[in-house]
Design goal:
Keywords: Glycoprotein, Ion channel, Ion transport, Transport, Voltage-gated channel. InterPro entries: VDCC_alpha-1_subunit. The longest helix has 12 residues, at about 30-40. With about 110 residues, this protein is of the alpha+beta class. About 35% of the residues lie in helices and about 20% in strands. It contains 4 helices and 5 strands; from the N terminus they run αααββββαβ. It folds into 2 domains: about 1-55, no CATH class; about 60-105, no CATH class.
Length: about 110
């Protein structure tokens, strides 16, 4: 049950490049990775790094509707409700229509 709660509350958190905390291997975006992350936190392994990543308050961009964007020869699909980082996803944000996103959302 807590895995599903984590997926709903923390599924759109920005992924980090670090080994600890929330990264592309340990996140709440998919059930399998959420289950492994929950097990990791229950065993108290690096739980504080996950907590700090979940509390990060940076300016994010909220995608309001499903959209596919091409930038720098790379095509990516974004879902409604997904948060984008202006630094990491700036090239894609610049190619989106302003009607597709809301800027200045704290995530």
């Amino acid at each position: 049950m807590w895995i599903i709660v984590g997926m709903n509350l923390l599924g759109n958190i920005k992924l980090h490049d670090n080994v600890d905390g929330i990264n592309r291997h340990a996140n709440y975006r998919h059930f399998g990775s959420a289950m492994l992350l929950q097990l990791r936190m229950l065993s108290l392994e690096e739980w504080n790094a996950v907590m700090h990543d979940a509390m990060e308050l940076e300016e994010c961009i909220l995608v309001k509707q499903d959209v596919t964007v091409t930038a720098n020869g790379e095509q990516r699909a974004f879902e409604a409700g997904q948060f984008l980082d202006p630094v990491d996803d700036g090239a894609f944000i610049s190619q989106m229509s302003w009607r597709v996103y809301v800027s200045g959302v704290n995530g």
